[in-house]
Amino acid sequence: MKTARQILKQAVVKKVAIGHFNIADLAGLQAIVAVVKELGVPAFIGTSEGEAKFLDRKAIVAYVKTLREEYKLPIFLNSDHTHSFEEVKKAVAAGYDAILFDGGTLPLEENIRQTRKVVRYVKSKNKNIIVEGELGNIGSGSTIRKELPKGAAINLADLTKPEEALKFVKATGVDMLAPAVGNIHGMFANAPEPALNIRRIKEIKDAVKIPLVLHGGSGNTDSDFSAAINAGINMIHISTELRLAWRKGMDKSLAENPDEIAPYKLFPASIDGVGKIVKQRLQLFNKLL
Ligand SMILES: [Zn+2]
């Protein structure tokens, strides 16, 4: 079995992106596991602070680890958007494979100071854990939006700058970087997302030379994804689309089975819906289409 770090290295060599999918329950996890089994490509499973609290960090680590070992699956768990040192410590103690420390809304120097502290701490505990840093504001929350999230960087002047990215990476020692390149968290109800700035992705990649992570992938176009991967993105986060598919599946299930009360008989429509998106995204990100 390859480690998370080896899987990341492999994605860099192959010039593909690892799919990162958030979960809040076992229906979401089952959907991802089924597709990984079918396609034989790796996936990262993410829990935000809210999702981690709901699932229990140690319990979800044990669950993912058990499935990984039992079925020899390349699935790994990421502590997504971890905002405090306290939560970082909990993720390390629980046994997460990767941690995103999110200081994206902090001033650069403060973001560097806190991220460096996190990297040092995590590496002192377990060198195998991948640490990701965030530079630039892409808004927060995997929700359906009517307007841009407050403070999100969409204008060219607000996007992550290559020279700042290099300074950040050198000073902190992060393994992966999540920049603001026109991406935003969540997706729009009735409009396409703003286009990604592919040129800026390439400029940042050329400067930092470490794997870049694209957050807020829900709602972006396939052609934008492919161009972003070719420009140096090695991991793409999808969450909002999965939440929407989960909800639609559950609505359908409840409407079609008004008298059913067994949860495991109601979940399959959600698992199907989530799985369809995971499959389509993994095929695209791994250049299997
Ligand atoms: Zn994110």
Verbal overview:
The chain is globular. The protein has twelve helices and ten strands. The protein has helices at residues 4-14, 26-39, 49-55, 57-71, 85-94, 108-125, 162-172, 198-208, 222-231, 240-256, 263-266, 268-285, and strands spanning 18-22, 43-47, 75-82, 98-101, 130-135, 144-145, 176-179, 187-188, 212-214, 233-238. The strands form two sheets. The chain has an eight-stranded parallel beta sheet with strand order 7-5-4-3-2-1-10-9, sandwiched between helices. It is an alpha/beta fold and 289 residues long. The longest helix is centred in the middle third of the chain and has 18 residues, at 108-125. Helices cover 51% and strands 16% of the residues. Zinc ion (ZN) is lined by residues 81, 185, 215-216, 237.
Strand neighbour order, sheet with most strands: 7-5-4-3-2-1-10-9
What order do the SSEs take from the amino end to the carboxyl end, as H and E?
A: HEHEHHEHEHEEHEEHEHEHHH
What class would the helix/strand composition place it in? Answer: alpha/beta
The residue-averaged pLDDT reads 95
DSSP strand content:
15-25%
Q: How much helical structure, as a percent, in the residues?
A: 40-55%
Low-confidence regions: none
Q: Count up the helices.
A: 12
Q: Could you list some keywords that capture this structure?
A:
16% strand; binds zinc ion; globular; alpha/beta; 12 helices; two-stranded parallel sheet; 8-stranded parallel sheet; 289 residues
List the helices and strands and how they pair.
Blueprint: H1 4-14, E1 18-22, H2 26-39, E2 43-47, H3 49-55, H4 57-71, E3 75-82, H5 85-94, E4 98-101, H6 108-125, E5 130-135, E6 144-145, H7 162-172, E7 176-179, E8 187-188, H8 198-208, E9 212-214, H9 222-231, E10 233-238, H10 240-256, H11 263-266, H12 268-285
Parallel strand pairs: 1-2, 1-10, 2-3, 3-4, 4-5, 5-7, 6-8, 9-10
Bound molecules: zinc ion.
